[in-house]
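Budget justification note: compute hours in this period were largely spent on complex prediction jobs such as the one shown. Inputs:
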Amino acid sequence: MMPVLLWTDGLIFLLVAGLAGFVFVVRRHEHLAAPWRRVAGDPVGMAAAVLLLCFTGIAVLDSLHFRPALPAGPGGDKLGGEIQYAPEVKSLLDRALAPLIEHQEKSYSAPFASRLFIREAITLADGRTVRDFPRLQYGGAALADPDAGRAGDILVRAAAGLAGGLAVWLLLAWALRRPLRRSAARGTILYTLLAVCLIVGALAALAPHYHVFGTDKVGQDVLYATLKSIRTGVLIGALTTLITLPLAIGLGVSAGYFGGRVDDVVQYLYTTLNAIPGVLLIAAAVLMMQTQLETHPDWFETGAERADLRLLFLCMILGMTNWTGLARLLRGETLKVRELDYVVAARAFGVSNTRILLRHILPNVQHIVLISVVMDFSGLVLAEAVLSYVGVGVDPGMMSFGNMINGARLELAREPVVWWQLVAAFAFMFVLVLSANLFADSVRDALDPRSRGRS
Amino acid sequence: MTAYLLRRLLYAVPILIGVNLLTFALFFLVNTPDDMARLHLGVKRVTPEAVVKWKAERGYDKPLLVNAGAAGLAKVSDTIFFEKSLAMFAFEFGASDDGRDIAEAIRTRMWPSLAIALPTFVIGLLVNITVALILLFFRRTYVEWTGVVALVAMMSVSGLFYIIGGQFLFAKVWQLAPISGYQDGINAARFVWLPILIGVVGGIGAGARWYRTLFLEEAGKDYVRTARAKGLTETRVLFRHILKNGMVPILTGAVAVFPLLFMGSLIMESFFGIPGLGSYTIDAINAQDFAIVRAMVFLGAVLYIAGLILTDVSYTLVDPRVRLQ
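Corresponding output:
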């Protein structure tokens, strides 16, 4: 197994490390920790946080990439003694979901189906040919009589899965009993965990034997596609902010602090960028990036690297168009903070500008940065879907909610309707965005001094 | 007032120049016309002659910034920058890849876009304000709590699902509206009501929530307490005091986006086959027709700046405390 580090993987690990560092610093400073304790006491916010953590977990699992070693050739020779690696890049999530990848059917099949969704000519044992729904190769393959025993089999497996989930939850609850002892949101956290455990348990028990969300046009399991889409969504939301932050903080704060020429230039920059309608600017930039990628095939070796590079560029483009809002907010706040007594005093003492910015200004505008980071996340996940529909989103070969919707939108026009792919994308995306929104609200209420004391 | 307007208009010029330079850089410097030609003709197996021909057909065969071969003024005017980028200030957008005049297309496609965007905007504004006021009226009750949760849930649904779901239910299952298409004149109503309905419903989540925050901020102010202390009824406080003052940011915000309505809605128009500017842009993006995308970027910037100026003016009209010098 040869580990592969794609660009976005590196950045997402950097982000996780940064987050861990942030938590470490916050825990050591009471004044920083106080608002977060309010978030921790908010049941709705914490339930959302649990869900977000689950999504992030899947995204991180899906970011640990490697190229599996190929089995040795016949006779055990290893081509010059070296291990050969498969050309395609896999992730740990792919490894865990291996049965879902392998269980490729011929075409559409409904959720939990044991037969294909479309009729095909089947040659019977006695040589006659009839048009009927053929059995699926993997969905409900263990059943002797697919039509009679299916419901019972599903129920038994689901019950086993639910029981397993319950057991895991009990273990988790026992393990978490100390950290959660004094939390006001303990009940909600545990209930959310219970729901997650039960769903994951049932899915884990059923997925190897049935296509829980059906299969798509080429027979691929929809559950697998949805799970893979999570990484794309989370990545776009997280990486874009990572790229936005240095620009927005640097330009916004210096515009507010230094004023004069610097302020003029920064204001001009963001007014100009704002003047161009967002989607169009992104579309223009993505079109240009596409041409660049077309004309420079030497930048990437595999298709996965190409898709990854494109995703990275997309995040950069979104970041370039997204920093203006935060920069404007930071400029305004810095203008206010700059006139406060302690900053004036620091300046009178001859403290250098860099030090004033780092020690006095930044810590006092950080709540704005944090609020805007969590608020922007959900919007970016939604934007990905729209951009992919417009044709300027992630690589068409990459699994994402936008590509799923885009591929499935014509399925509703079919007769009979193929609905499961849209519903699966809708459900997962909705839960992801909803939890991001709820968490953002909770963070804003806790961190924004203006919203304190308001119902 | 006139002097102020003039100053604002002059202030818009450097921004438009910036937009112009940015689009020029994006479309001609990052990728040379040669790259574009190769992309259109297929990356592999392109003869140099085909590239030259493609460029000549579209007027991309000139030097980018300075034409050393020409004499006098033509040194600057006979270049791509002058003919393709600066010409946009005179609203001369040139021809699209299929040879049609872009300015002409914009003029005809503007109306279907407006037929959807304008009603969506006006009805949406009214609905959002009404929902926000209802939530405010039932403050600290279960109605408010449920309403706020519903709004967050509604804004967590991707706009694509509103369109796909709405089209499926109303047009396909219940057959209340044509699935797609458009006709001019009075017949347009048959085609536009469903996109408008979907647009309004899809916008409630974010819109009403935003207005609610504005109203809540207003409701926490001293004059509201005074009004209550005087013994005014809750309805009177709500409509005469909070609504009136809360309308200031709402109206000025609405004015800011008003000019952009001309641009239409990208996705809605392409789903419903409305021949407006939104679907025009989407088709251009899919066909990689850079001339159209460039024109729409510039047009969008002009409309955005028009919105900024209108906002400033409208502030003086609705808020007597604001005066322009």
